[in-house]
């Protein structure tokens, strides 16, 4: 049998709906693995508006996107979810029956999961890197062109070229400098959208001759069998120059695309997954869709809707995971059983 991670539930997406799913499922003793293509939890809240205030979370008059994420992470701590960041769920296959569902999921990092139920909390879809307009760049992706760092070792003793002027570009310039043979940062302008302390740290490394900073853009690359050898830099003065380049990291921001969810054989309606409003289950028994990704009459794409949906979906998930156990309705305020699970009594 293939080496798979066995779990009760796989949650696709670590946005607010995915995170609160861990809580509601955890109260019902359902253990979760959570997978997100981003390097951190929080979905849109952390990626698109970490510092903006949200005013319509019940009981929290105001909190920022990042504060909400941090609070959700704290709230689910007692359930010890396992996170798999920087990984996209690519395939979802059904192995079981309608009464006893079982699923096999695989990620683009090669991990396999076996789960009894699946919660799709994929929001507006997976955040995916915007690609630079460099001919044939696809043939190098995953081998020598990367949009995220999975293993620092892939960059050891390599000539690394990083393109961009935001936080990711600057963070990886700083982090890879001690590991790589050389680091060249390429940006169109001499201004950066990154945290000021990262920008000054980068400028100090340039002044000390430890990294190179070049104004311009990469217009083409050369190499063989997916392994890069060089990249052509077109300077802002129009002059072209060949740079030694074995690893290229373009950081041009992210877009949201539905992504692989579209290929999982689920009924879709305008890129959303129709569900019922009793259990938020999809057209396939055992697969639930919660948060922004689902659709039903009257749906509002609000965080509070996702919270409600996951509480109800968890009730039905319990029937699949523990078919012989009866589910008792309990309050966290008064149930010592729930309080034990939360580690508060
Ligand atoms: P998301 O937050 O979109 O998270 C989904 C996650 O799933 C993403 O991290 C994505 O990378 C991941 N994912 C998708 N597919 C895959 C895959 N195949 N493999 C791995 N990972 C995958 N709502 C409010 O209630 N109040 C507000 O004030 C408010 N303000 C907003 C302001 C802005 C600027 C924006 C953009 C949105 C705002 N919203 C607000 C909406 C709110 O952010 C969304 O309703 C909420 O984030 C939806 O949560 P979610 O968990 O369903 O999805």
UniProtKB/TrEMBL annotation:
Keywords: FAD, Flavoprotein, NADP, Oxidoreductase
Catalysed reaction equations from the record: 2 reduced [2Fe-2S]-[ferredoxin] + NADP(+) + H(+) = 2 oxidized [2Fe-2S]-[ferredoxin] + NADPH
Necessary cofactors: FAD
Enzyme class: oxidoreductase
InterPro entries (alphabetical): FAD/NAD-bd_sf, FAD/NAD-binding_dom, Fd--NADP_Rdtase_type_2, Ferredoxin-NADP_redctase_2
Co-factor note (free text): Binds 1 FAD per subunit.
UniProt cross-references to SUPFAM superfamilies, sorted A to Z: FAD/NAD(P)-binding domain
UniProt keyword Oxidoreductase present: yes
EC number: 1.18.1.2
One Pfam family it belongs to: Pyr_redox_2
Domain FAD/NAD(P)-binding: start-end pairs: 8-297
UniProt binding sites for FAD: 36, 44, 49, 89, 127, 292, 333
The family this protein is said to belong to: Belongs to the ferredoxin--NADP reductase type 2 family.
Stated name of the protein: Ferredoxin--NADP reductase
Organism: Methylocystis hirsuta
């Amino acid at each position: 049998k293939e080496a798979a991670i066995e779990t009760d539930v796989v949650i696709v997406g670590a946005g607010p709906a995915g995170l609160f799913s861990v809580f509601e499922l955890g109260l019902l003793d359902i253990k979760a693995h959570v997978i997100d293509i981003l390097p951190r939890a929080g979905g849109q809240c952390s990626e698109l508006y970490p510092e903006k205030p949200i005013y319509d979370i019940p009981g929290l008059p105001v909190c920022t996107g990042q504060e909400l994420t941090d609070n959700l992470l704290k709230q689910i701590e007692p359930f010890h979810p396992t996170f798999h960041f920087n990984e996209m769920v690519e395939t979802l296959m059904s192995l079981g029956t309608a009464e006893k569902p079982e699923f096999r999921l695989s990620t683009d990092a090669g991990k396999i999961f076996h789960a009894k139920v699946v919660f799709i909390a994929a929001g507006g879809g997976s955040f995916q890197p915007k690609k630079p307009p460099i001919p044939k760049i696809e043939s190098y992706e995953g081998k020598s062109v990367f949009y995220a760092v999975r293993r620092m070792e892939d960059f050891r003793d390599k000539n690394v070229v990083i393109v961009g002027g935001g936080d990711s570009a600057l963070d990886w310039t700083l982090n890879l400098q001690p590991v790589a043979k050389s680091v060249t940062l390429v940006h169109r302008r001499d201004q950066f959208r990154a945290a000021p302390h990262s920008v000054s740290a980068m400028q100090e490394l340039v002044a000390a001759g430890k990294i190179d900073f070049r104004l311009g853009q990469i217009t083409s690359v050369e190499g063989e069998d997916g392994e890069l050898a060089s990249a052509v830099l077109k300077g802002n003065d129009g002059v072209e120059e060949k740079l030694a380049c074995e690893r290229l990291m373009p950081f041009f921001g992210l877009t949201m695309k539905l992504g692989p969810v579209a290929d999982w054989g689920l009924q879709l309606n305008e890129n959303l997954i129709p569900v019922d409003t009793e259990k938020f289950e999809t057209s396939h028994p055992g697969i639930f869709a919660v948060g922004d990704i689902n659709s039903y009459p009257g749906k509002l794409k609000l965080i509070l809707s996702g919270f409600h949906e996951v509480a109800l979906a968890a009730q039905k998930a319990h029937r699949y995971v523990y078919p012989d156990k009866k589910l008792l309705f309990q309050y966290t305020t008064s149930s010592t059983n729930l309080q034990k699970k939360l580690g508060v009594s």
